[in-house]
Write a structure and sequence with these properties.
By secondary structure, this protein is an alpha/beta fold. The protein folds into 2 domains: 137 residues, Aspartate Aminotransferase, domain 1, CATH 3.90.1150.10; 249 residues, 3-Layer(aba) Sandwich (Aspartate Aminotransferase, domain 2), CATH 3.40.640.10. Helices cover 42% and strands 15% of the residues. It is built from 14 helices and 14 strands. A 7-stranded mixed sheet has the order 2-10-9-8-5-3-4, with helices on both faces. It has a 5-stranded mixed sheet with strand order 1-13-14-12-11, sandwiched between helices. Helix 2 crosses helix 9. The longest helix has 22 residues. The structure holds pyridoxal-5'-phosphate. Pyridoxal-5'-phosphate (PLP) binds next to helix 3. This is Serine--glyoxylate aminotransferase.
Amino acid sequence: NLDFHPSGRHFLQIPGPSPVPDRILRAMSLPTIDHRGPEFGALGCELLGKLKKVFKTESPVIIYPASGTGAWEAALVNTLSLGDKVLMFETGHFAALWQKMALRLGLEPEFLGLTGAEGWRHGVQADMIEARLREDIDHQIKAVCVVHNETSTGVTSDIAAVRRAIDAAAHPALFLVDTISGLASADYRHDEWGVDVTVSGSQKGLMLPPGISFNAISDKAIVASQDSKLPKSFWAWDEIIEANRNGYWPYTPNTNLLYGLNEALDMLLEEGLDHVLARHQRWAAGVRKAVEAWGLEIQCQDPEVYSPVLTGVVMPEGVDADEVRQLIYERFDLSLGMGLGKAKGKMFRIGHLGDCNDLTLVAALGGCEAGMKLAGVVLKGSGVTAALDHFANHPLEAAK
Ligand code: PLP
């Protein structure tokens, strides 16, 4: 009985952190420079300009040396005051964590959502938001907060529809959106969709390691920040915006991650965002073909909002998804996302983002298929063959 010694590359198929391309790793390995020197200021200006293109905004994008959770907090503390009502929508585990944070900060979140079997299997219901905002005649609700790509379920909500709902109710609430796992893999448009604060992170579609996160902000959000009373210092936008004018930060920024970010932005913009998005859609379609061929259910129940970033695979009744995942990890050196919160033990998540291609995905699906068989999961057919056929028959150019 030989011990298992992994060789070759680990398959990091969780929905973030995503595999980091070698080009980015190399960029990050350069020597750290003086963050107050001229070379750094030039880098700061360059990457802040390119970053706007990825968020599709003309307004400032704030970068924090923090994980996505920090940028969530920054979005709330910069715009709101103690006791403010905020309307949030329960799409899954990450929406629930943001709501918990709002409570801890002394806000009054109201958590809308679908209940029972429908919960966590659909996107944000814009009509429910509109109906609630119409009832709020004296405008007690100060912000609407939603998650764009719910990483715990694999559902990408229609953000433009939520904007239309807020407008239809003629409500002045700020619109705050978490696209931590959506940006640069799923279509996202900060300005066009009238978002006031977009929250994002480095370790998903931007293909970087964890460690930096973002707030893209609107003029309305900047105005709100001038009246907002929640305590803030490190997260406060004003000093950062001021220092960013010359490409600097008011504190020591995460220099080597910024090298990586600059490289990632070059990669995305050289390829073209439309191409990047089509690539993820195509991968997601191939992975769904595999799940269908296995005869298993996808966590997302609404094809309109299937995520291009990840797919949640529901295990049959009586199968512990965590045991299947563990077996796959131990036998095939493949990491899959676990079921989080209410979905714990019921499903696993396959990430299709970061440094991958058709064949790495087919290999990952191979690990899933073999592992499920070993765990005794009854499969209808071969998902690997279905995905391979899909990729072979749908060249990327045709997917655009
Ligand atoms: N929101 C979403 C949608 C996420 O996927 C994550 C992390 O996976 C977070 C928030 C929290 O970000 P972090 O873990 O980087 O703090």
